[in-house]
């Protein structure tokens, strides 16, 4: 499960950083949400969604089945992000990070999917 741990660390590093930036109203994040034609309250919600996902990934080091849920949480978040980038007709260079994080999140959930058997009766 080394690959799973590496992917968890990658997602934690990325999302703790951008999540906190969104919550604190970092200038770049404010500009991005304006560009995406989204209200600033949605930036805050997105930041908290990302921080909650990070907490799930951290808990997943002790309870691996939580990684499946956190991975799907981020996959849905990044799918919405990718759709928003497409909606405003962003270039591929601006859209690809959301797709890459979506793919990493799905892979992480797939790698840990068997852990769900440990909690099911």
What is the terminal-to-terminal distance? 24 Å
Mean pLDDT: 96
Order of helices and strands, N to C? Answer: HHHHH
Assess the beta-strand content as a share of residues: under 5%
How many strand segments? 0
Radius of gyration: 15 Å
InterPro entries: DoxX
Transmembrane segments: 6-25, 41-59, 65-84, 96-114
Subcellular location: Membrane
Membrane topology: Multi-pass membrane protein
SSE topology:
Elements: H1 2-24, H2 27-35, H3 40-59, H4 65-87, H5 92-112
Helix pairs in contact: 1-3, 1-5, 3-4, 4-5
Structure description:
The protein is mostly helical and 121 residues long. It has one domain. Helices cover 79% and strands 0% of the residues. The longest helix is centred in the first third of the chain and has 23 residues, at 2-24. The two termini are 24 Å apart. The mean pLDDT is 96. It is a multi-pass membrane protein. Keywords: Membrane, Transmembrane, Transmembrane helix. The chain crosses the membrane at residues 6-25, 41-59, 65-84, 96-114. This is DoxX family protein.
């Amino acid at each position: 499960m080394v690959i799973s741990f590496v992917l968890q660390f990658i997602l934690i590093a990325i999302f703790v950083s951008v999540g906190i930036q969104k919550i604190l109203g970092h200038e770049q994040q404010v500009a991005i949400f304006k560009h995406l034609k989204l209200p600033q309250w949605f930036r805050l919600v997105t930041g908290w969604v990302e921080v909650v996902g990070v907490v799930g990934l951290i808990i997943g080091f002790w309870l691996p089945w939580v990684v499946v849920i956190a991975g799907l949480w981020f996959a849905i978040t990044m799918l919405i992000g990718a759709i928003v980038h497409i909606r405003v007709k962003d270039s591929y260079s601006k859209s690809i990070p959301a797709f890459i994080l979506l793919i990493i999140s799905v892979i992480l959930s797939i790698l840990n999917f068997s852990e769900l058997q440990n909690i099911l009766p």
